[in-house]
Design goal:
Helices cover 41% and strands 21% of the residues. It has 232 residues and is of the alpha/beta class. The protein is elongated. The model has no long low-confidence stretch (mean pLDDT 93).
Length: 232
């Protein structure tokens, strides 16, 4: 890889932005296409495919054989609440390739013996996420049932355009949540993106079953063609 391209790629990765390395297989010439520049590029459609799947794509264009190799930031699942669902969700999500972190200011729940294999923050979400901001390659699952803990990261996730935002709670609870978030200045377009009640509707009841439903919904959101099409 040419040093200048490598430098560009490192800059994109440090900023947690996606990019695709496009290489002409006949000449070896390459260019780095940033996700932000994809929409107006002649290879927009295959670039979108590569970014959505995270897998390389071979393309024939005007007699040239091109190899598109995507570089995506590590996908994060930020779980708000060190609860029983989180205990089941964390190892499953890690097995699926996600970077998982648990945030909960309630130190009676956020203990290393309950979450020994993931990053655990026994602190308020505001403090943690201001140091490690959310972005479009993050999923946020709010699971505490406590608006004092859940509301701020939900708002932050929507403003950061996280690819998934889910929240635990009944429809009545969610209705009250929407009122609070509207008062905080979020629009209906923002609020429509919240998955609530959280998880795919598989009639899950136990914490482990709910964790399966949540992880499946997160994966479905990430693989959605609409997500790739909405990227800019």
């Amino acid at each position: 890889m040419h040093p200048a391209i490598l430098q560009q790629l490192q800059a994109e990765r440090q900023a947690r932005r996606a990019a695709v390395l496009v290489t002409d297989l006949a000449t070896g010439l390459a260019e780095l296409v940033r996700d932000a520049d994809r929409a107006g590029h002649p290879l927009s459609e295959p670039l979108s495919k590569a970014l959505q799947s995270g897998a390389p794509v071979n393309v024939e264009q005007e007699g040239r054989s091109l190899f598109l190799n995507p570089y995506l930031p590590p996908l994060r699942i930020v779980v708000i609440g060190a609860v029983h669902i989180s205990q089941a969700l964390a190892p499953m999500a890690a097995l699926a390739g996600f970077s998982v972190e648990i945030i909960d200011p309630r130190t009676a729940f956020a203990t290393p013996d309950r979450f020994s294999t993931v990053r655990l923050y026994p602190d308020w979400p505001e403090a943690v996420l201001q140091e490690e901001p959310l972005d479009r390659y993050c999923a946020v699952a709010a699971l505490t049932h406590d608006p004092k803990i859940d509301d701020w990261p939900i708002e932050a996730a929507l403003r950061a355009e996280c690819f998934y935002v889910g929240a635990l709670g009944s429809r009545k609870t969610h209705g009250k949540r929407l009122e609070r978030l509207r008062s905080a200045g979020l629009t209906d377009d923002h609020l429509e993106r919240i998955r609530a009640p959280i998880g795919l509707p598989i009639r899950a009841s136990s914490p482990a079953e709910i964790a399966v439903a949540v992880l499946a919904e997160i994966i479905a959101a990430w693989r959605s063609p609409e997500r790739a099409g909405a990227s800019t």
